[in-house]
Design brief:
With 140 residues, this protein is of the alpha/beta class. 53% of the residues lie in helices and 19% in strands. Helix 1 packs across helix 4.
Length: 140
């Protein structure tokens, strides 16, 4: 699966690392190899506009995911500024929060949701499993 990264956040970020994580999650979830995923990293102002336009919420959010038609899997849009705030709020670190947001967005495109308590628990468990495996692979 082709993963395209577009960093419009104004921050210097490890784009290659995000691309590698996205490829790992997609491969683990058996996403079609001929598909395409777009990852956009955006500033809070752009995320606010998108969140207002598509969800009716006039505030920035951490991650949005939009499904596309075949062969494109979809778009994941992450706001690093909001992810950084969440990392502080949840006593996490920025890198871990960004990995979580990316994994979360991709899982939405793969059919996961958090519409019910049961589906939210399943999605959170899958996020935890994927990120644990990813982080274990990175440790020498």
């Amino acid at each position: 699966m082709l993963v395209l990264v577009d960093n419009r956040s104004g921050e210097e970020l490890p784009e290659a690392a995000y691309q590698a994580l996205a490829e790992f999650v997609l491969a683990t979830e058996d996403a079609a190899e001929e598909g395409e995923l777009s990852l956009s990293l955006v500033a809070a102002r752009e995320m606010r506009v998108l969140n207002c336009a598509y969800r009716g919420i006039d505030a920035p959010t951490d991650v949005l995911a939009f499904e596309n038609e075949e062969p494109l899997l979809g778009d994941v849009i992450i706001c690093p500024e909001v992810a950084r705030e969440h990392a502080r709020d949840f006593a996490s670190d920025f890198a871990s929060e960004m990995e979580l947001m990316l994994t979360h967005g991709i899982l939405h495109l793969c059919g996961y949701s958090h519409e019910s308590d049961a589906s939210a628990e399943a999605m959170e468990a899958r996020e935890t499993e994927l990120l644990q495996t990813w982080r274990e692979r990175k440790v020498p």
